[in-house]
Design a protein that fits this description.
The chain is an alpha+beta fold. It folds into two domains: about 5-140, Roll (Urate Oxidase); about 150-305, Urate Oxidase, CATH 3.10.270. The protein is about 25% helix and about 35% strand. The chain starts with 14 loop residues before the first strand and ends in an 18-residue tail after the last strand. It binds uric acid.
Length: about 300
């Protein structure tokens, strides 16, 4: 029997890096969860246990913290790209690096109508993330950035219908022209790698605008199905953001079922629902430009988005 090593990568997962900028009394904070991985020519580490090519995961962890001080965290994308390039330069056997960063948002606590200088409350709407994959270095470098948001829980109490669907002998679902539409959205968008390579993207501005647009379109679109809502949200992002090549969604349909109150002599005109947690419909869709550049390793190891 002959066996060989297949795809592999290694790194330090979930480094909880917390950076405080205390240059003035009004502190700024960035609360991150950083995972690193290197891939490349690491056969010997696996097949004969030779570690000479292996930059330890412990070193990768240390670098995440040291760079938060030395280089700072202007945006999670810039921080991740800097780390990825560094790991490739520091590890001759590495052909590529993957750095994933989640950012937990904090809002200033309002005291007497003003945001406090150094007291914060966890922000509620969604977790920002990025997955950076860099292949090679110097002239041969290609950088891919997939940014996104998850746990963006949204609901509309009307403006959603679901009817005209295929029926067979097992169909019991009633058609409706007025239902609750709710989801905990995962959206990830791939930046056009030529924009990434030219360093032309204002990452924070792009994220804020895309998040606002996703929410705006969710609110505005009269939904005929979650599928149609997602497509409309993706279309708007691609229309308004030339820097984005593709956007992918994963959206659990958080069903709200009308409760039958007739046993109690009560009518129920879309007023009382049971919010079911499972099972749930799971609607997933990609919206991309016809001429989107090839993704390369952009979606490498992004769970559920291969
Ligand atoms: O928006 C929806 N899409 C579906 O595909 C579906 N299927 C279902 O039972 N309810 C819904 N809702």
């Amino acid at each position: 029997m002959t066996v060989r090593l297949g795809a592999n990568q290694y790194g330090k997962a979930e480094n909880r890096v917390f950076r405080v900028y205390r240059d003035s009394a009004r502190h700024q904070i960035r609360d991150l969860n950083v995972s690193t991985s290197l891939r490349g020519r690491f056969e010997d580490a696996h097949t004969v246990g030779d570690q000479q090519d292996v930059l330890p995961t412990d070193t990768q962890k240390n670098t995440c913290f040291a760079f938060a001080k030395e280089k700072g965290v202007r945006s999670i994308e810039e921080y991740a790209l800097t780390l990825a390039d560094h790991f490739i330069a520091a590890t001759p056997a590495a052909d590529g690096a993957r750095v994933e960063v989640e950012e937990y948002s904090w809002d200033r606590i309002a005291v007497d109508g003003a945001g406090h200088d150094h007291a914060f409350v966890r922000g509620g709407s969604g977790v920002r993330s990025t997955v950076v994959n860099v292949d090679g270095s110097g002239q041969d470098r290609t950088a891919h950035v997939v940014s996104g948001i998850h746990d963006l829980t949204v609901l509309k109490s009307t403006g959603s219908e679901f009817q005209g669907f295929l029926k067979d002998r097992y169909t019991t679902l009633q058609e409706t022209d007025d239902r609750i539409l709710a989801t905990s959205l995962v959206a990830r968008w791939r930046y056009d790698s030529s924009y990434v390579g030219r360093g032309e993207i204002d990452w924070d501005k792009s994220f804020d605008a895309i998040k606002a647009l996703l929410l705006q379109r969710f609110a505005e679109i009269h939904s005929l199905a979650l599928q149609q809502t997602l497509y409309g949200m993706g279309e708007a992002v691609l229309e308004q953001h030339p820097e984005v090549a593709e956007i992918r969604f994963s959206a659990p349909n958080k069903h709200h079922f009308l409760v039958d109150l007739s046993p109690f002599g009560l009518d129920n005109r879309n007023e009382v629902f049971v919010a079911a947690d499972r099972p749930y419909g799971l609607i997933e869709a990609t919206v991309l430009r016809e001429d989107a550049p090839e993704p390369g390793s952009a979606w490498h190891a992004v769970p559920g988005f291969c």
